Amino acid sequence: MGFNFRGLAFKQSLMILVAVTVIVGLIFGIMTSKMSSQLEEMTIENGEQISLANVTYIDKLFDAGKHVGEDAASTLSNSRMTKAELDEFLTHTLATARNLVPHIVAVVVAFEQGMGPETPKGEFMRLARFVDNETKLITGANYQDKEWYASTRDAHSSRWQEPFIGEFVDEPIAVYTVPIFHKDKKGNEVLAGVLAVDMSIEFLKETVAAAQVPNSGFAMVLSEKNVPVAFPKYIAEGRGEKEIAVKEFNNKNLVPFDRRGKKDKGLILGSVVGDEEAAIYYTTMKSNNWTFMVVWPAQKFLEQRQSSVRLFVVLAACGYAVLLVIMLLISFRVAKPLKELSAAAKKLGNGDFDVAIPQMKGHDEVAEFAWAFSNMLSSLKDHVERQKDMKRIERELDLARNIQLSTLPREECEENSDDDRHELSQFLLPAKEVGGDFYDFFKIDNDHLCVMVGDVSGKGVPAALFMMISRIILRTMTKNMKSVVNAFNSTNFALAKRNRLNMFVTVWAGIIDLRTGHVEFASAGHNPPAVRHSDGTVEFVNSKSGLVLAAMEDTLYQSQSFDLKTGDSLFLFTDGVTEATNSRDELFGDKRLLETLERGGDLKPAETCAFVKKSIDDFVQDAPQFDDITMLTVKFIGNDEPVWERYEKTVDVAKDNQGALKSFVENILTPMDGAKKMQMQDAWQRYEKIVDVIPENQDILTAFVEGILAPMEASMKSQMQINIAIDEIYSNIVKFSGATSVTLIVEIRKATLDARLTFIDNGAAFDPLKQADPDVTSSAEEREIGGLGIFIVKKTMDSVSYRRNGDQNELAITKRLS
After folding, report:
1. Bridge-partner residues for 172, per DSSP?
2. Residues 259, 282: contact at Cβ < 8 Å?
3. Is the N or the C terminus of the chain less surrounded, counting Cβ atoms within 10 Å?
4. Across the strands, what pairs with 569?
5. Is 251 helix (H, G, I), strand (E, B) or coil?
6. Is 383 exposed, middle or buried (CB count within 10 Å of its CB: 0-12, 13-18, 19+)?
7. Residue 507: predicted pLDDT
8. Gap between the Cα atoms of 43 and 332, Å rounded
9. Neighbours of 327 (CB within 10 A)
10. What sign does the dihedral 735-738-743-745 (CA atoms) show?
11. Residue 743: φ, ψ to 5°
């Protein structure tokens, strides 16, 4: 058989050879990349599985220590104690903390010069230390220049310190420090000192030692400054601590590991011990910004990939050799079908998508090429159809966006809410075509304006639908009930009852009395608004946030209030404002928002929204918008007219209703006699709550009582004593009574600031008051277990009583809240 080196067959064979070479190379590259990607994914998945349980456990302990510190610092900020009271407080705080986190070994409080109890001059430091199964109280000094004190004092903020061995605690500890503030004579908050919670980090070493990491791997923990604080003992054998350092490859060079600019978790290549290469999966712990790492030797990590690459190379080489042998046999069969395919390609290039692709028999390259060509034609047809569908979807999303935005009021005249006693403006920019943010404003009556902002969980169409439902229900309830709290309660019940997708919405809503500037409001997990006062100062509204709407059907919200003065502006917003993020992953933040509002000066509401939006744009620059941005500003102007109390009665003129109108007026104008006033002052208001007997419901009862007592402005000491009493009584019921449900009845008498709590359970009969009081003069080892909790309740309450009512226990406590 003759062979023409210039003929089409040779050229086609040569082209096929080149094409196959390119294809094999591409397949090799793709397969190698895919195998590397799969191995990396497997490694990441393995690292996530190992990290998840350990990080959750560690975060839980550090979060608990953090909450202990913040609660204790809050108590010290709100009450000034004597030395004896401080010692008792530190001892009790340490005991309570160790019940939650046994790794907490000390609680420390250090004051600024002259701010300590009974210390008009000089410094004062006191430490409660748990050692040898008992609590010791120690006095310290010379702490002003210590890192844990100075960093918290200078920053005026809480933080986890780098681990160190303390002066009074002879083991490595992690310290959570919280600033303590007192109010001076002018009512300004000044730094009084620092509270520290010392937590032993020995449990970290036990945790990483117990972590089961395959392929000769191990776990370790780094501090916030990337210092190793916990790692298996065997990797430190024969090495100094400085030789154990996490490094990563940067342009083929090993440099110290730096988490800045990285995601919260990920996989890197680097080293831990010496220059031995390793694959390292890291996870950032949210509680203290430390890092949990899972480390594998690089040899194990790369071994499987190298084996697969070698196998693929062998198979590719064998196939290439076979191709060379049969190339000449198939070259003469290529020319004709290629011409047919070329003609079909020309028609396709001219837009003929109905062109017939020649059907090639066999399984050679030409047949595969024809099949690929046919497949390409089908894909092109599908792509064209998908493009048509995408345009249709874009048109429908644009329509949905317009419908959503059209449901929100744009001008006050649309709501008949405009008058000369206020100015109002709003702004909303969804992150996607449709969003979950909303705002609303409308008048309850001529003198009361309701304003609100909300943010639905999630993004896109589901959030938009849930937003519209939530806004309509909340708006309707508020208008009908004329009360934000009642509207929140009813809306929450309506949304939570059939919330099968477990969505929720945060809302802040308030009703402004346009005559006086008094604002009644409630918050369902939403950011508190800011107030820019007429004197130029800016602050956030003191807002106690309740649970988000649609989470639980029986949630009750708390009514709160504050007052606007003439010239004050109220600025409502969603977290898209404060959580706007720039390219360096920095948040716009609350502080920057307050500075922006203060810097803006006395702007009109519309100008305020525009000024804040420009500040956000200058901050984020080219970074994409991830969340909806919503703002609403109200400027209170008020007037000089006297405030009138308004009453209304409607009667039928067809009937003789003169007497009814007369009685209506007399009831308003006739004041109550003294006896009736006294009767109302002495009346008890009654509230009731029923829960299942499980430990988790203690927080529900505590929150229930705090919500009732908050308006009475009880002292911090009284509130804390009541919370401790609830803790002790409910714990006894859970542990010993065998009850299945507890009813808590709260009765308050505002005239005398009295509160009475009655616990009713269906457990076995038991009178705790018959138990002998423990001998508190004895040491903890000598004293018998039990009875201390009820003893504390009896000592802190004004009265404690018990009775067996049928098959139920009733334990009642009474406390004067002054």
Report:
1. 165
2. yes
3. N
4. 532, 635
5. coil
6. exposed
7. 95
8. 50
9. 17
10. negative
11. -110, 125
Query: For the residues of 51-93, what is the DSSP string, one character each?
Result: HHHHHHHHHHHHHHHHHHHHHHHHHHHH----HHHHHHHHHHH
Q: With b meaning 16 or more CB within 10 Å and e meaning fewer, what string describes 340-350? A: ebeebbeebee
95-132 as b/e, with b when 16 or more CB fall inside 10 Å?
ebbbeebebbbbbbbbbbeebbbeeeeebbbbbbbbee
Task: Tell me how crowded residue 178 is: count the other CB atoms within 10 A of its CB.
Answer: 24
Cα separation, 510 vs 485, whole angstroms: 9
Q: Which residues contact 12 (CB under 8 A, 6 or more apart)?
A: 331, 334, 335, 338
- In angstroms, the Cα distances linking 228 to 241, 290, 292 are 9, 10, 10
Cα gap 146→162, rounded to integer Å? 12
Give the number of other CB atoms < 10 A from CB of residue 562: 16
CA distance 278 to 114: 54
Q: What is the pLDDT of residue 718?
A: 87
Bridge partners (DSSP) of residue 588 are none
Q: What pLDDT is stored for residue 548 in this prediction?
A: 92
Q: Residue 12: which of 426, 412, 381, 338 has the closest Cα?
A: 338
> In a 10 Å sphere around its CB, with 0-12 CB exposed, 13-18 middle and 19+ buried, how is residue 500 labelled?
exposed
Residues of the chain with pLDDT under 50: 1-4, 642-644, 646, 672-681
How many Å is the maximal CA-CA distance in the chain? 129
- Strands in 448-456's sheet, in edge-to-edge order, are 437-445, 448-456, 505-513, 518-524, 560-563
C-alpha 77/C-alpha 92 separation (Å) is 17
User: How is residue 776 annotated by DSSP?
Assistant: T
Measured from the Cβ of residue 482, the count of other Cβ atoms closer than 10 Å reads: 14
In the block, tokens 């913040």 appear at 70
- Lay out the sheet containing 799-805: strands in order across: 685-692, 741-749, 754-761, 808-816, 799-805
**For position 674, what pLDDT does the model report?**
45
Tokens encoding 686 = 């009654």
Q: What is the separation, in whole angstroms, between the first and last Cα of the chain?
A: 115
DSSP classification of residue 582: -
Token code pair at residue 661: 């109108």
